[in-house]
Fold this sequence. Notes:
Immunoglobulin-like, glycoprotein, signal, FN3_sf, VWA1 protein, repeat
Amino acid sequence: NRLHATDVTASSVRLVWPQLLSQDSGYYSLEYGPAAGPAAGRKTQQVSGAHTSLVLSDLTPETTYEVVLIPESNVHYFPPQTTRVTTLAEEISPVQVLISESGPRSFHVSWAPVLDSVASYQVLYGPLPGNSVKVLEVDGRHNSTVVEQLAPNSTYLVTVTAIYRSGKEKSLSAKACTQEGEQGA
């Protein structure tokens, strides 16, 4: 029966509070800002007394916000209610997959960006056309790997999947071609 946050994402949060006022008896002032930041930097929003929820958006990921709800009543005094809410880490998929140093039997795969919220990456690769796929597990701190033991002069589909600490996954794919093999080897 107090101010609290629901539906928390990386950039937004829904605030819910008890019905203290009515349309006619006043309005709510909502102040919010990063808990670690200066009070002067806080934003204020006014909401009609009929409301009992509001979505705050354009928030910064992985930030603890302090929210103060001040019921401005012309009938009763209601003490301000405060709550703290921490936004989630932003979960963005790899935005770039680069293939380089391709030889007859190997190529180098790198990706960006590298995010603290990623536990590990999975690099899936297999020849096109075809459905035989191999998987390489890469530590979340690394952003490249070498894929070896490939067939010469072939096209491969490479998919990099970021596996977040939250359990979510995001993927991006690229095509890679191996060089022709040495003649008479």
